[in-house]
């Protein structure tokens, strides 16, 4: 068909050939027949021939060289083909022939194509630059000249390709970017997606070399540490530098502002590129806006999820707060791939803290039961990491892992053993019973790593289990020859340790094992056997080391450090292949450190300013002025307040309270941008702002409609959904700001009215973008409001019909010093907890403060000044006291919502003349309210709060301390709990609920034979449960 005289037959043949290539079939045999048609006059045939030649030109170089004259003719100025696609294809084919002989021809073709009238041809010239450079790197200088010329190109089609060529050929020539920096920033929105990714990565590197670090505000404390040896003059200089307020370079702000709209791009690579730019060059207060966009990408394909989750895992190590509001988005779904599940686990571990660990442990309990064994094993490792990072739940996690040892699945048991071994290394003295329990499991466990871990534990603690260790050695000696190599090494170590500590019982056993190891097939085991024999069995040939055998084998081993595998990846630029592989890939360009002093910003100024102004039609420019007055202030005012207004609007959008501002911010931002662009782009900015103006007026109409509908509760959800939380308001008129304040207040009222009616959310409800269910009026501790609703929905004790708050059994009269009379200049203050419901709020703990005037003068205007409360904590202060007479005393009441934590509430107690910093830290027992319930209900609730929600310990005390009245008195003295009737004399039960969240706290004291008892606490609030256990144990043990 290719030999036919008819173009239709040739075209049909070429379509079939290209179709074969598309399906992956080899069509290289047809090269001679295809290349004959390269000079065809039919454009369609020529296009397909060029497509074929691009694919096979490198393989059939000799035949391809025959058609070079045709390609040259298509590119030469005199005989240039009128079709831009043919010219571009000719250049592509020419650059695909990888023969050094034609380098001069390629160079000439690229030069001519770079001056072509068609931007598509110029784009292909930029692509050809990279191919020529890889073929002949000596042409670098000539290629740089062409790149410099193409960088000045104003076409958005060329921008991405030429920047890619710049990155490949001369990434260190930053001077080529200076004059084109502002143009690239302004063109960024209109460039194709592939080009956007390339340009953003290049501009990230550029910004790190040309601007001062925007993170300097946080370095004050670090500088103070270095001042010890400095002279007074040097300290003054440093102090002056620190006092100097940080002012962001306008070009730095231009880059951050112009990339922000791309966070809403449909292309995941563009969103990821903008996210890494914000992470590496934006102020930390503004970087939070990328979190929502990254979470949105988790709805994409699993490949995109994998890359995004890897980057989030790296970010969440350094800045947990960015992703805490989206905690539910990282819950594992049953349909997720194993690699996705493990990455989500990693992120959940990084985000774990005292406030959300209870929820996460409940999630982990479910994950352990997964049919995906690799995921279940990773979950057990995650529980171990949580236990090491949050000490309050280490005992809870350890108990939960011990429970898993009775699991039917061998892989779960094996992984639990390995993790328990690591946890026990941190506190081996307290867990002798667990080691004994694990020794019993040795007969049933067959996984080599788990068996080796048990043997190592017994060897390390052989002196604490003197009866069990020799018996374990006897059993393993029988099976030595059939064991895995890893287990054999640990049997040898166990024998050596027992030989040194208990040689009477184990001497013969150890020698028997050493003889078996001497003839083992594995040379590692043979070498270890010889080494151990020479070290522990003294003879004439023994060296000096044998004296120190005990110190070598029984030395204290450092506890393992359970760290995130993503901890060391932060030195790679996010979103790069090197970051994904955690190793430096070929072609990776490292980010430089911020310069101490910013280079001269004038290098970015462009000279052709007046020409751009003159080019703008005068009539159209006049039409722009009314819009400017309507949306924004004058250009001069905007430039002066650019950095401050940006940072203010950014922090507002992050806090989630300026949703109405964000709606109007879309239109204001666009008009503000056109006014604040550099002078070099004023002409183009003016024409673009006119095009935007029509859309802006529509946005304003929408804003008015939305503000009206937001006043009614029925229309609230639609108005919030329409708002863009990522938009940025630069400058607004006074009338707009006033109306917005009114709208905002009304919106807050409707939210507060609707909040009690919020529907409970299930644990796996992953739609955490529904902002309606998230109250924004009050900050919360590390938990997001939607997660609090989630916890309330998951409350395992939601049986209010049988559980009710009762009166306190006992109110201790112990007072705590709030302010000493010496520190308070005669004003003394004490506080105590009356254990009564707080009159200021259901979630507050009542605190009574007694103020004493120990001076001989009247103290006036006693009041509470500034408050420094942790996130989410609230305080209702007492009314100011006008005066307190000499030797006078007065008692006032306060209410504090401690958010179910023992964190300190810090505030200032002020008089007319002075202010004193004081703290109130509640004992954990005062965070509870006593509960009345039956024994049956107690057992039911206790059964539901098992596993990770249970902590226990053994108490040893004299028998007279275990009398019912003594136990009752001791427990109610420590904690505000109610007594639950018990039908058994040896079991005492107490119940309470936490003041803030209403979670049940069940305390059980079970008397055992002799002088021991078991103290068990069941609660969802595992942190409070662990702290209460630690406080009750010494009290019950004392006589």
From TrEMBL:
Source organism, top-level taxon: Eukaryota
The annotated regions of Acidic residues compositional bias extend over 633-672, 723-736
- Indicate, by first and last residue, each region the UniProt record lists as having compositional bias (Basic and acidic residues): 621-632, 693-708, 737-755
| Residue span of region Disordered | 618-755
Q: Where is the composition biased (Low complexity)?
A: 673-684, 709-722
> Keywords for this entry?
Cytoplasmic vesicle, Golgi apparatus, Membrane, Phosphoprotein, Protein transport, Transport
Secreted found in the keyword field: no
Domain spans labelled Beta-adaptin appendage C-terminal subdomain = 927-1037
Q: Where in the cell is it found?
A: Cytoplasmic vesicle, Clathrin-coated vesicle membrane; Golgi apparatus
Gene Ontology biological-process entries: intracellular protein transport; vesicle-mediated transport
Pfam families in the cross-refs: Adaptin_N, AP3B1_C, AP3B1_C_2, SEEEED
The residue ranges of the AP-3 complex subunit beta C-terminal domain are 756-903
Q: Which family does it belong to?
A: Belongs to the adaptor complexes large subunit family.
What is this protein's function per UniProt?
A: Subunit of non-clathrin- and clathrin-associated adaptor protein complex 3 (AP-3) that plays a role in protein sorting in the late-Golgi/trans-Golgi network (TGN) and/or endosomes. The AP complexes mediate both the recruitment of clathrin to membranes and the recognition of sorting signals within the cytosolic tails of transmembrane cargo molecules. AP-3 appears to be involved in the sorting of a subset of transmembrane proteins targeted to lysosomes and lysosome-related organelles.
Q: What is this protein called?
A: AP-3 complex subunit beta
User: Species name for this entry?
Assistant: Bos taurus
Q: Which gene encodes it?
A: AP3B1
């Amino acid at each position: 068909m290719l030999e036919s005289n008819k173009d239709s037959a040739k075209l049909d043949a070429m379509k079939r050939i290209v179709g074969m290539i598309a399906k992956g079939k080899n069509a290289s045999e047809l090269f001679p027949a295809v290349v004959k048609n390269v000079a065809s006059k039919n454009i369609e045939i020529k296009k397909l021939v060029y497509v074929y030649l691009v694919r096979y030109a490198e393989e059939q170089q000799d035949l391809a060289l025959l058609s070079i004259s045709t390609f040259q003719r298509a590119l030469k100025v005199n005989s240039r083909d009128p079709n831009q696609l043919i010219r571009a294809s000719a250049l592509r084919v020419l650059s695909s022939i990888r023969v050094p002989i034609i380098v001069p021809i390629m160079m000439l073709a690229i030069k001519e194509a770079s001056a072509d009238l068609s931007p598509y041809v110029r784009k292909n010239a930029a692509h050809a630059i990279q191919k020529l450079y890889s073929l002949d790197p000596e042409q670098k200088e000539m290629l740089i000249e062409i790149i410099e010329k193409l960088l000045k190109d104003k076409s958005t089609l060329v921008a991405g390709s030429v920047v890619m060529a710049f990155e490949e050929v001369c990434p260190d020539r930053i001077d080529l970017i200076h004059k084109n920096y502002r143009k690239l920033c302004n063109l960024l929105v209109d460039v194709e997606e592939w080009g956007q990714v390339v340009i953003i990565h290049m501009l990230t590197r550029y910004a790190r070399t040309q601007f001062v670090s925007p993170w300097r505000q946080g370095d004050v404390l670090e500088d103070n540490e270095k001042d010890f040896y400095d002279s007074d003059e040097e300290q003054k200089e440093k102090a002056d530098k620190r006092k100097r307020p940080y002012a962001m370079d306008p070009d730095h702000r231009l880059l951050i502002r112009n990339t922000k709209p791309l966070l809403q791009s449909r292309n995941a690579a563009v969103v990821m590129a903008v996210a890494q730019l914000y992470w590496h060059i934006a102020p930390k207060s503004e970087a939070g806006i990328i979190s929502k966009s990254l979470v949105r990408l988790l709805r994409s394909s699993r490949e995109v999820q994998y890359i995004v989750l890897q980057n989030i895992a790296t970010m969440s190590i350094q800045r947990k707060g960015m992703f805490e509001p989206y905690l539910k988005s990282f819950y594992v779904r049953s349909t997720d791939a194993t690699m996705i599940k493990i990455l989500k686990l990693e992120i959940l571990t990084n985000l774990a803290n005292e406030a959300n660990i209870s929820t996460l442990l409940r999630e982990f309990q479910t994950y352990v039961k997964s049919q995906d064994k690799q995921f279940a094993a990773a979950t057990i490792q995650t529980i171990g990491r949580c236990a090491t990072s949050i000490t309050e739940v280490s005992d809870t996690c350890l108990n939960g892992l011990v429970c898993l040892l009775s699991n039917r699945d061998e892989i779960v048991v094996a992984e639990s053993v390995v993790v328990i071994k690591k946890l026990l290394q941190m506190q081996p003295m307290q867990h002798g019973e667990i080691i004994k329990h694990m020794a019993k499991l040795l007969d049933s466990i067959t996984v080599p790593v788990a068996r080796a871990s048990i043997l190592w534990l017994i060897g390390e603690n052989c002196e604490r289990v003197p009866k069990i260790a020799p018996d374990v050695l006897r059993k393993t000696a029988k099976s030595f020859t059939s064991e895995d190599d890893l287990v054999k090494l640990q049997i040898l170590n166990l024998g050596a340790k027992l030989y040194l500590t208990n040689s009477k019982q184990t001497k013969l056993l150890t020698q028997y094992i050493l003889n078996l190891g001497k003839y083992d097939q594995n040379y590692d085991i043979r070498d270890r056997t010889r080494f151990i024999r020479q070290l522990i069995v003294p003879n004439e040939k023994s060296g000096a080391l044998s004296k120190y055998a005990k110190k070598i084998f029984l030395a204290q081993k450092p506890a393992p450090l359970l760290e995130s595998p993503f901890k060391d990846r932060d030195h790679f630029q996010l979103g790069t292949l090197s970051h994904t592989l955690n190793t430096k890939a070929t072609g990776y360009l490292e980010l430089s450190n911020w310069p101490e002093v910013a280079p001269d910003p004038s290098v970015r100024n462009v000279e052709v300013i007046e020409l751009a102004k003159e080019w703008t039609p005068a009539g159209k420019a006049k039409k722009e002025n009314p819009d400017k007055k309507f949306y924004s202030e004058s250009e001069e005012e905007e430039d002066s307040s650019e950095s401050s207004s940006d940072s203010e609007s950014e922090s507002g959008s992050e806090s989630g309270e300026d949703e109405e501002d964000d709606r109007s911010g879309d239109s204001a931002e666009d008009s503000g941008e056109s006014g604040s662009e550099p002078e070099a782009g004023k002409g183009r900015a003016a024409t673009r702002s006119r095009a935007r103006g029509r859309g802006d007026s529509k946005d304003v109409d929408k804003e008015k409609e939305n503000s009206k509908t937001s006043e009614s509760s029925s229309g609230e959800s639609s108005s919030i959904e329409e708002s863009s939380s990522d938009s940025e308001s630069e400058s607004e008129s006074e009338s707009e700001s006033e109306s917005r304040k009114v709208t905002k207040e009304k919106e807050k009222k409707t939210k507060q009215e609707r909040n009690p009616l919020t529907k409970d959310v299930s644990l796996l409800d992953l739609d955490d973008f529904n902002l309606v269910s998230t109250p924004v009026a009050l900050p919360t501790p590390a938990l997001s409001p939607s997660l609090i609703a989630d916890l309330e929905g998951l409350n395992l004790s939601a049986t209010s019909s049988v559980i009710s708050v009762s009166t306190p059994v006992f109110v201790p009269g112990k007072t705590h010093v709030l302010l000493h009379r010496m520190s308070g200049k005669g004003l003394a203050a004490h506080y105590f907890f009356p254990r009564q419901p707080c009159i200021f709020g259901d979630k507050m703990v009542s605190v009574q403060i007694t103020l004493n005037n120990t001076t001989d003068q009247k103290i006036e205007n006693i009041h509470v000044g500034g408050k420094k409360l942790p996130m989410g904590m609230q305080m209702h202060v007492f009314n100011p006291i006008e005066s307190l007479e000499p030797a006078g005393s007065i008692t006032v009441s306060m209410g504090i919502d401690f958010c179910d934590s023992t964190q300190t509430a810090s505030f200032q107690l002020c008089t007319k003349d002075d202010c004193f910093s004081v703290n109130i830290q509640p004992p954990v027992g005062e965070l509870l309210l006593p509960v009345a319930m039956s024994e049956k209900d107690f057992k039911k609730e206790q059964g539901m709060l098992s596993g990770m929600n249970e902590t226990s310990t053994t108490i040893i005390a004299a028998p007279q301390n275990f009398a019912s009245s003594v136990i009752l008195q001791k427990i109610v003295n420590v904690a505000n709990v109610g007594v639950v009737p018990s039908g058994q004399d040896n079991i005492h039960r107490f119940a309470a609920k936490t003041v803030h969240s209403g979670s049940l706290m069940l305390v059980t004291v079970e008397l055992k034979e002799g002088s021991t008892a078991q103290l068990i606490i069941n609660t969802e609030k595992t942190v409070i449960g662990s702290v209460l256990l630690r406080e009750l144990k010494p009290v019950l043990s004392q006589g």
